[in-house]
Amino acid sequence: MESVAVLGAGSWGTALALVLADNGHDVRLWTHRPSLAEEINTNRTNEKYLKDITIPENIKASTDLDYVVDGVNHVVLVVPTKAIRDVCQKLNHSLKQKVTITHASKGIEPETYKRVSEAIREELSEELYDDIVVLSGPSHAEEVSLRQPTTVTVSADVLEKAENVQDLFMNRQFRVYTSPDIVGVELGGALKNIIALGAGISDGLGYGDNAKAALITRGLAEIARLGTSMGANPLTFSGLTGIGDLIVTCTSSHSRNWRAGYKLGQGHDLEEVLEQMGMVVEGVRTTKAAYQLSDSQEVEMPITAGIYQILFESQDPRDVVDQLMTRIKRHEMEDLTNILGQQMND
Question: Which is deepest, 113, 125, 169, 210, by most CB within 10 Å?
């Protein structure tokens, strides 16, 4: 049995805490909301984020970060990407021992273009952790909490640390693979949220399966183009953290990015949609970062650019679809040839 701190008591943080608790670990769940800590500890529920789920006794919730991380071996970060730096700064004061950091947050930071692991390394004292492990893959929190079969990937600079986290989480319902490609794993998990917004917009506009299939396929090409330009292995995007995560996020109403896109496609404006959602929609922030990053990297990402125009320039979604459909003709294999050629040159 291990002592594990899970920071973030939203749907995904709570679901991962349930996996760890099922494996017999002592789990401390941190939230900044006293009312939520009280609900979890007293009623054994988290109704706002995971309805009708019973939280086991070996999960203890608290707003006291010092208590939550005291003596633990592992810290699992499951907070929104915009809160990563702030939480890491708090950990600099609360941690008294070296731990393994695992993060399950999916996003890219606008302006800096940093992946989550890079932001953690910049903020957290290197004396406090032995490695940073990324956990990502096709995984709706609602299904994980119901113990439905789910498969994810973990990646780290040191394989042994990724394997330790693999052992920490893996059970009969939650299968965990390892990967050496931390860049690809993080970028696949972050960038698919942009395409999920697009899939929701497409459905909200009333377009059919043909449009969504094209969006997912060409969206994957954009993800691979940008990811490879940043040093990722293109094969990673054909795996769980690439096409796997893309499929589940683009095709399910569980996905808050898809739900947000659907409302946008129906004609609601962004501010209204985010207020109605009541939860963080990571794809919005990531769209801004990826749009900026593609420009700086000189990587063509027309779908991302179109979604950026809808989100931040008030473009009509139908006009953006028309722009995408009337782009200059291309050869489909051109992307694959360029990506593989770049990898061989590297």
Answer: 169
Superfamily in which the 3-180 domain is placed by CATH: NAD(P)-binding Rossmann-like Domain (3.40.50.720)
| Residue 106 CA: distances (Å) to CA of 5, 146, 192, 260, 340 | 19, 22, 9, 16, 26
**Beta pairing partners, 108:** 115
Using the structure block, give the residue that is written with the tokens 């099922």: 22
CATH architecture assigned to 183-345: Orthogonal Bundle (1.10)
What is the domain partition of the chain in residue ranges?
3-180, 183-345
Task: Please give the Cα distance from 150 to 221 (Å, whole number).
Answer: 25
Give, to the nearest 10 degrees, the angle between helix 256-265 and helix 270-277.
140
Mean pLDDT by 10 residues, the chain (346 residues): 95 98 98 97 96 96 98 96 96 97 94 95 97 97 97 97 98 98 97 95 94 93 94 95 96 92 93 86 93 93 95 92 77 59 53
192 catalytically annotated? yes
CA dihedral sign of residues 227, 83, 281, 60: positive
Give the amino acid at 80: P
Map 57-71 to HEC letters: CCEEEECCHHHHHCC
Main-chain phi, psi angles of 79, to 5 degrees: -105, 160
Beta carbons within 10 angstroms of residue 53's beta carbon: 18
* Whether the Cβ atoms of residue 53 and residue 22 lie closer than 8 Å to each other: no
Sign of CA dihedral 161, 165, 166, 168: positive
Catalytic residue (one of 106, 114, 192, 288): 192
Pairwise CA distance, residues 325 & 302, whole Å: 11
Nearest to 109 by CA among 135, 82, 132, 83: 82
Q: What is the pTM of this model?
A: 0.92
Per the document, the length of the chain is 346
User: What distance in Å separates the CA atoms of residue 61 and residue 77, rounded to the nearest whole number?
Assistant: 15
Hey, what are 59's tokens? 């999960």
**Coil, helix or strand for 85?**
helix
